[in-house]
Amino acid sequence: MTKLRPVLLVVVLLAGFYYVTTHVTPGALTPWVHRVFSNASAPAAEAPATVRGPMGTLELTEAAAAPAFDTEEQQNIAVYKKALPSVVNVTSTAVAFDFFYGPMPQQGQGSGFILNKNGLIMTNAHVLLKNSQRVEVKLSNKRTYKAKVLTVDKNHDLALLKIDNAPNLTPAVLASSSGLVVGQRVYAIGNPFGLQGTMTRGIISAIRSIRGPEQNPIEDAIQTDAAVNPGNSGGPLLNSRGEVIGITTLIATSSGVDQSSGVGFAIPINTAKAVLSDFEKYGYVRRPSLDIVTLPVGPDIAGQIGLPADYGVLIMRVLPGGAAARAGLHGGNQQAYMGNIPVMLGGDLIVGMDGQEIANAQDLSAAMNSHRAGDVVTLTIYRGQKKMNVKVTLSDARDQQGQLGERT
Question: pTM for the whole thing?
Fold first, then answer.
C-alpha cells in the first residue's frame, strides 16, 4: 500500500489538471494568479485592483492606506484647526431707495474674528454698509447671531461688533506685528465670495505704508501674496503658529477687476490693539488731533503767496483751547481767495514732524496715525521766513467735536 501512494498522488494531480483545463473558463484564474504574484513584488502602500465589465478588464493601482501627512501639510492643518473656530462671517444689510422711492435692500459681506468669550468681534469698517439696519455674524458652526456695532474707526478701517448669548466661543490668539520679516509664511482665513472657512497661504511680500479703502493712511501695512478676494476683508492674517498678526483689508486690483492679483494688504495687529485699548479705557477710539484747519501747499501756491518752502501744510485756523493753540502755533490773519474759496494766509507752515518731512496733508495724516492723544510731538514749522521747532501735546479729536468741520 505504501508503494502505491506516489502513484495515487500522481493520478489525483493529473485528474485535477484535466478538470481545470476542460471545465474552467479560460482566463478565469488570471486575476487570481496575477494578484498572488504581483502582491509579492508590489510596494506595501499600493495594491492592484481589477474591475471587470462589458468593455473588458480594467486594472487600477490603489493605495493600501492613506499616506501620512508630511511636515508642511501637518503645519497647514494645525493652523487651520486652531484658527477656524474664531473666524466669522459678517453680513451688513441696509435699505436704499430707487428712483421711484421703492426700497432696495443692499448687502455687504466680509469676515471677522472673535476677540473674547463675551462675543467681542473685530472686522473692517468698510465691511459695514453706511446706515446699516442690520448686522449679522455667522460662526464656524453655522449659527447666526444679530450683532451690535460698538464702534467704527474709519481712520484705521476697523470696527468692533458684539454678539450676545453665543456659548463656547473660541477667541483668536493675538500675536505682535512688530519684528515681522519679509519671506515669513502667513495664512489668511475668511469667506471669499461667501465661501465660508477658506484658507490660503503665502508669505509676507513687504512691509509698507499704503492708502486704505477710504484713502486713509495705513502705516506698516503687511503685503502678502496669499490669495485674498472680496469677502476676506476683516478676516485674520496668521503666522505659522495660528496667531493673528494682521487684519486683511485690501486687494491691489488692475483694470477694475476686483479679485486676487497676488498683492493683498493687512492692517498690522498692533494698530488694532491700540484701538482696543482706547475702547476698553474710554468706550470709544481716541484719535489724536492738532486742532487746526489746514491748506495743502504746492509749488504754485507757495510761489503766489511767497512761502519759504514749496511743500508742507499751511495752518489757516487754530481752534481755541486746542493742542495747537496751547503750543502757541499761529493761524492765518489775511483773508484771500483761491477761485471762489476763501482762505486765510499768514499762518505757520508745517514742514516736518519728529524729524519726518511733511510734504502734504497725507503725510501729516500718516504721521498723526502713528501717535495717540496725549503724545508729545515736535513740529518743524516756518513762521514767516524763520524755521523753528515747536513741541505740541496732541489732543483728543473728540474733545473738539462740533466746533469746526474739517480739521487735523
Answer: 0.67
Separation in Å, CA 92 to CA 55, 196, 361: 56, 16, 32
Going along 4-81, which residue ranges are E strands? Answer: 46-53, 56-63
Residue 15 phi, psi (nearest 5): -65, -40
Q: Could you tell me which residue, 370 or 313, shows the higher pLDDT?
A: 313
Rounded-to-integer distance, Cα 103 and Cα 108, Å: 16
Do residues 306 and 394 both lie within one domain? yes
Domain boundary among the residues 103, 132, 163 is at: 163
CA-nearest of 135, 79, 80, 76 to 109 is: 135
Q: What amino acid positions are annotated as catalytic residues?
A: 126, 157, 233
Mean of the pLDDT values across residues 227-234? 89
Return the residue matching grid coordinates 473738539.
400
Contact 264, 226 (CB under 8 A): yes
Q: Which of 16, 39, 67 finishes a domain?
A: 67
Is there a single domain that holds both residue 224 and residue 237? yes
Cell readout for 119 is 462675543
